[in-house]
Design a protein that fits this description.
Number of helices: 6
Low-confidence stretches: 1-8, 13-17, 167-174, 191-218, 253-274
Strand content: 5-15%
Distance between the termini: 148 Å
Shape: elongated
Order of helices and strands: HEEEEHEEEHHHH
Mean pLDDT: 73
Structural class: alpha+beta
Helix content: 25-40%
Largest sheet: 4 strands, antiparallel
């Protein structure tokens, strides 16, 4: 038998079933959950000392905030029950209580969808029914024959409950995995270096390591025409300077290089040589 029975707690909707208004199925979710009492926080048995655990996400209504014990005797605290109580996790007592007493889905961590409409049962004005938007049927909200609400049992079977994705878990690294990761990183770095060296241009191999390669700019046709005119004008100026130098006065020959041509010397001695 599951430990999720409501012995000593009473059915939370027993009186509401015969009320003039439909029962509030989610009344327990509108109140602040209670923490374990002080005497439970300091038990004589060290194995029963409660410890706080992280929720799967902010606003998670299912995951127990406080747990205690180990193995098959591990228990979770339900602070939605009044008063709160410890429920065994292994035999689904905690799941049964959260699902069918409080209407909280274990898959989503949120409350089941409520009925779209409510009405009194035909032939019995003391029983309330709710309209299910998923299947289109009218479902009794509560039942005195079954523990938990009838609506929550129907919602668990009829409605879709996309499972919440837990955060990524980090695997503990072993010395072997650390060595393998280091070898993989080194191999990848060597391959990347070799690829870069093989595809780089000769000029880039001798470039300064802090300098980025200068890529040639693409010139427009107008810029190319301007550059061509500039080079033509420059070339014309250089040609003019060369012609001026060639047509200028001849430079007199130094006297030291032709002593026989100095003024006053006679050329008669060279007559027979001509």
């Amino acid at each position: 038998m599951l430990h999720s029975s409501t012995d000593g707690h009473g059915h939370p909707f027993a009186a509401a079933a015969e009320s003039a208004t439909p029962p509030d199925l989610y009344s327990s979710l509108n109140e602040q959950p209670e923490d374990p009492p002080e005497e439970d926080m300091h038990p004589s048995d060290p194995d029963l000392v409660p410890h706080e655990q992280d929720l799967r996400f902010a606003g998670d209504l299912y995951t127990p905030k406080w747990v205690r014990g180990h193995g098959n005797k591990r228990e979770g605290w339900c602070g939605l029950c009044k008063p709160g109580r410890w429920l065994v996790l292994k035999n689904s007592a905690f799941w049964y209580d959260k699902s069918f007493t409080h209407g909280v889905s274990a898959a989503t961590g949120a409350a089941f969808k409520g009925p779209q409409e409510t009405r009194r049962t035909e032939g019995n004005a003391d029983i309330w029914e709710g309209y299910c938007g998923s299947c289109g049927d009218w479902i009794s909200l509560v039942s005195s024959k079954k523990k938990g609400t009838t609506w929550f049992r129907h919602a668990y079977k009829c409605h879709t409950h996309p499972k919440v994705k837990d955060g990524p878990k980090r695997r503990r690294e072993t010395p072997a995995s650390m060595r393998a990761r280091a070898a993989s990183n080194a191999s990848g770095s060597t391959t990347a270096t070799a690829t870069t060296a093989g595809t780089s241009s000769p000029a880039s191999r001798f470039a300064h390591p802090d300098e980025s390669p200068v890529l040639p700019s693409v010139e427009s046709s107008e810029q190319q025409q301007q550059h061509s005119q500039y080079h033509q004008q420059r070339q014309a100026q250089l040609d003019a300077e060369i012609r001026a130098r060639l047509q200028g006065p001849s430079v007199p020959m130094p006297s030291s290089t032709a002593p026989h041509l100095r003024t006053g010397h006679s050329l008669d001695g060279f007559a027979g040589m001509i």
